[in-house]
Amino acid sequence: MLVEEIRKSFPGLAGTVYSRPLVYFDNAATAMRPIRVISKLEDLSYNHNANIHRAVHRLSAEATEEYENTRDSVQKYLNARSREEIVFTSGTTAAVNLAAFCFGESFIRHGDEILVSEAEHHSNLVPWQMMCERKGAVLKKLPIEDDGTVSLDVLVRMLTPATKLFCVAHITNTLGIENPLKDIVNICHSKNCPVFADGAQGIVHSRTDVQETGVDFYSFSGHKVYAATGTGVLYGRKELLEKMPPYMGGGEMVGTVKFTGTTYAPLPGKFEAGTQNINAIPTLVPALEMAEAMRDTELEKYCEGVSEYIFDALTSNPRIRLFGVPRGAQKKAPIFSFVVDGVHHEDIALILDKMGIAVRSGQMCAEPVMDRFGVTGMVRASLAPYNTMEEAESFIRALERAIKMLS
Amino acid sequence: METSLEEVKKQVVEDFSLYDEWLDKYEYLIELGKALENYPEEKKTDDRLIKGCQSRVWLDYWVKDGRIWFSADSDAIITKGIISMLISVYSGRTPEEIAGDDFGFVEEIGLKENLSPTRANGLASMIDKIKAVAAENVQS
Ligand SMILES: Cc1ncc(COP(=O)(O)O)c(C=O)c1O
């Protein structure tokens, strides 16, 4: 498959900014949406708009089918054992908050420990911190290495009998490092510690198999993997989800409701209170199909070439410091965060913007990572499989020009 | 005869209108930033920081003979250019003049809509801070 073909499916890529062709390198923040996702959203709004599960009428049955079929697709995609392990949320943040609250209620006592990697997005840190405060538990930081990786030796040392959960990104949003989930899970499970993997970036750049890796929880946002915004997934191992209390109370999540007491719906309904994002959730189906299609060998090879080109250009410039360059065998996703000696990250991003190149600058919702590397912020260029070599070249040229202007 | 505030603003708008391309306008801002005089290190204190900017911007001021004088710095050069442009207009003006001004010339330059949303907030925060300083010093 050729990149030109794929690009035709993403109308957002054809845009111009300041009359220059857009180079969209902020995919880690949100990805572009393919036509099939946009059409799906439209189709549901036009033709199948009804509330799900509740009514006997035809339209409701159609909407319910779309929604529940999506659960099957996600189950297959993640290779979860059962569809009940797939809970729909509004995104990664909502998924982590749900997990943190409910897991905390069931499993965390005063003095327990939650271990969180230092390289996490705030979404996979703050909810755990809030839960620890509520339960009188201790939040512990697993320090990352200079190359941005999680050391398994350090992990072994940090796990104590009191550690009740390890929270780690599948792929980190700043450094783009892919953590070896399977090894991490093996280590943690040998010490009876479950693992929560934040898959917001992992779902985009890696294969995710929850059975093969053995993770206990996995979360992701639809919008980063080409689906509509306001969609997301929490995967949880059934044994754990079953022991966890509901998160929000309301319609849909109940068995019987009396003023004297309420019973809750079985999984996954227990965690899906109220009307969900029923028009948008089904866009996960074409989105994940798209993600799958882009795992084409020819295209992957091309993407590797693009990545290598950027990597080489950034690492060969003595003024640029690229973060998250694994010394070992860990893989790096095409997420490039860097600083330029003597130049503010925001200035770089502003000048690149004027040349039509969209990158991110700042703390990237990962302040501890900035502190770890002693910077106030970074510039991040994050690619998707639809980005081209020409775009990469234009990014590097623009970056060089920006550095010159700002020096 | 001193130049009036209106004339100074008009001059700034004219200066920027020389550049058609956004990139060139930014190049000009960078020059303004680089030209901003040395701001003393010891005045880079938290109470002089303008809140609401992605980069750090310090604004110091003093009142002499009924006029407000500003000096500023930032760790980002474009922000520094913007604050430099603002204080070149408002430094040495009376509190009444500044407090009574609508800062509309900023929109004429087109800076407001052309800066990223966070940056636009930064610009708004800079303007708010200058206005607040003026308001504090208006003789009632
Ligand atoms: C690794 C990681 N975790 C969590 C999030 C939060 O995702 P969302 O804002 O979609 O909930 C992001 C996205 O910014 C991310 O990259």
Brief summary:
The complex is a heterodimer of chains A (407) and B (140). With 407 residues, chain A is an alpha/beta fold.
Write a structural description.
The complex is a heterodimer of chains A (407) and B (140). By secondary structure, chain A is of the alpha/beta class. Chain A folds into two domains: 2-30 and 296-406, Aspartate Aminotransferase, domain 1, CATH 3.90.1150.10; 38-290, Type I PLP-dependent aspartate aminotransferase-like (Major domain) (Aspartate Aminotransferase, domain 2, 3-Layer(aba) Sandwich), CATH 3.40.640. Helix content of chain A is 40%, strand content 17%. Chain A contains 15 helices and 17 strands. A seven-stranded mixed β-sheet of chain A has the order 4-10-9-8-7-5-6, with helices on both faces. In chain A, strands 13-14-17-16 form a four-stranded antiparallel β-sheet, with helices on one face. In chain A, α12 runs parallel beside α15. Chain A is globular, with a radius of gyration of 22 Å. The model of chain A has no long low-confidence stretch (mean pLDDT 97). In chain B, β1 and β2 (67-74) form a beta hairpin. In chain B, α2 (22-35) crosses α3 (77-90) and α3 packs parallel to α7. Helix content of chain B is 54%, strand content 11%. The mean pLDDT of chain B is 88. Chain B is built from seven helices and two strands; from the N terminus they run ααββααααα. Chain B has a single domain, classed as Sufe protein. Chain: A, CATH 3.90.1010. In chain B, strands 1-2 form a two-stranded antiparallel ribbon. Chain B is mainly alpha-helical and 140 residues long. Chain B is globular and about 45 Å long. The chains are: A alpha/beta (407), B mainly alpha (140). Chains A and B meet through α13 of A and α2 and α3 of B. Bound molecules: pyridoxal-5'-phosphate (PLP). The site of pyridoxal-5'-phosphate has 14 residues of chain A, from α4.
